[in-house]
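Q: What would this chain look like folded?
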Amino acid sequence: MYKIIFSDIDGTLLNGERALSERTIEQVGALKEPFILVSSRMPRQMYHLQKDLGVMGLPLIAYNGGLVLNGDKVLHSAAIPLSILEEVVALNEQLFGGEIHISFYYRDEWYVPQYDQWAKREERNTLVSPEVLANGEVLTKWKEAGHGAHKLMLMGEEALIERMFGLLNEKYANVMQIYRAKETYIEVSDISVSKLTGVKIVLDEIYHLSLKEAIAFGDNYNDLEMLEGVGCGVAVDNAREEVKAVANHITLHHSKDGVAEFLRQIKGDKL
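A: My prediction, written as structure tokens:
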């Protein structure tokens, strides 16, 4: 029987307006099982969703598994080393004239090089505001603090991002996870990071449950391992075909409250 539920956020749990529908809030609120958010987002971009869902205080898996929290306690943290961050910034300056926007993330810190269209778009999407600080100054600040980044987000015109994506894979595929979130976005994290590793940490350290006892919802390439690894992987109808192929079930489109609909359907059965 299933005893815990994990869900991706963007493109999965949120509707077409990038918000939680009343139906989703109602279905999650009726659960007796823990409902854990799993996302590429930073924690600060997830707390308001936890609050609205009535699951505030439960563990969360941020940065695609790069940071796993149980309240204020850090269960797991995997950051990109500073040396690699310096190389990526230099690559952007030397080959792209700094035209690619690089956002730096660590814990609940989010730095943007300028408050441009890319920063504003992410701010609208996540309801969290960044701090403006040049990439070089962030590197100096974090060198003093002694840590790297949980995530880099590279944003720009499609042709630039296409070229940068190829270069990053050519140079860093063995040390970083390089994920094309959309045509104009690249998300970068440490090579050890995956949503499934985050799920395993929560199951092992908090709930003492097996992967077979978990349900997970997702839509994109970074959800593949998670959906394939748990006992019941559920893809929303808008999911990538590769994600649908590994899922046990396919529910409605995220804009039609697919997660809520699946939870409603299984309510009559014991999870």
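The chain has ten helices and 14 strands.
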